[in-house]
Amino acid sequence: MSQETKGADAATTENAAATAGSDGAGGEVAPPAPATKPAADACSYWRVFWVMLLSGLIAGTRNILVAWEEEKKASATSSVPFDAAYRWRLVARHLIVAVAASFLIPLFLSMISSQLLQEARCYIDKLLILAGFCLVAGLSATRFIETVSDRVIKMAEDAKKQAANANAKADVAKEAAAGVQETLIEPPPPSPARDAVRAAARAAMPAVANDQKAVLRALAASPHALFTTESITAKLAKDVPSVEEALRALAAQNLVRVLPRINRPGEFVWGITEAGIEAAQ
User: pLDDT for 113-161, tens place per residue?
Assistant: First the structure.
């Protein structure tokens, strides 16, 4: 056998061995290597910046050409010539508006919760998609800016309304918690010494008018609760001025106590004192 034939047989044997080794004992093919993430130095916001700027300039240039054609047609049918100074103002306006619309794309993507801006830093396909967004925004610059502005204003108003509703609910919850706390106060245990003091105080207590005593009895029905003037008036079926007058007179005698209402500046609640409980009996 010649040397060339031996070499060919050896090469064939090596290839078969390599194929068998790659297949493994079960004949399975090794899985492909996972795709690697781009290096940190390959991700940059500068490429996003230049793409947005270039897209805005391209869109603005297209808008300028369209506006020029329209102005030329209008000047051809009128006696007013196409002013060169106006032409440059037109150029500046379309370029600035288109670039501004292009740079509003990050805000727009944030409003729709898109991750395209972060992905465009590293991946060229995402960068091209971002460029398409910027071109579309620049081509319809004025309408796009108005749409985004209106949506931002609406979101701000909705957030303000939600905050106001949350504050109102918190105030109601605090007021309810304060009322529950007042009603859950445990009354003091009976005491002979305190009963003697109460009897002496009752004997030295000045006389209370009938309308004032009716107010005291309404408060004494729930001695550990606080009442508004309106709730006392509803209990007694009387008018508000007479009830307020009676409450002020009782407060001057330390038979009722007045407290500022929680989270309601300028409003007050009334509660009965120990002396008021004695006077109501």
Answer: 888 888 888 888 998 999 999 999 999 888 999 998 888 888 888 888 8
Burial of 100 (0-12, 13-18, 19+ CB in 10 A): middle
Residue with tokens 């919850």: 173
Query: 201: helix, coil or strand?
Result: helix
Find out whether 271 and 227 touch, Cβ atoms under 8 Å: yes
- Rounded to two decimals, the pTM is 0.43
Q: 24: phi > 0 → left, psi -120 to 50 → alpha, else beta; which?
A: left
**84-102 and 124-139 are packed helices; what angle lies between their axes, rounded to 10 degrees?**
140
* Residue 223: CB atoms within 10 Å: 15
Q: What is the mean predicted confidence (pLDDT) over 176-180?
A: 60
Helix (H, G, I), strand (E, B) or coil at 178: helix
**What one-character-per-residue DSSP string does 250-269 give?**
HHHTTSEEEEEPTT-TT-EE
Give the contacts of 263 (CB within 8 A, at least 6 positions apart): 171, 174, 175
In 184-271, alpha helices (H)? 192-204, 210-220, 229-236, 240-252
CB 138 within 8 A of CB 59: yes
Structure tokens at 248: 């002020």
Reported as a single tens digit per residue, the pLDDT across 16-35 is: 444 444 444 444 555 555 55
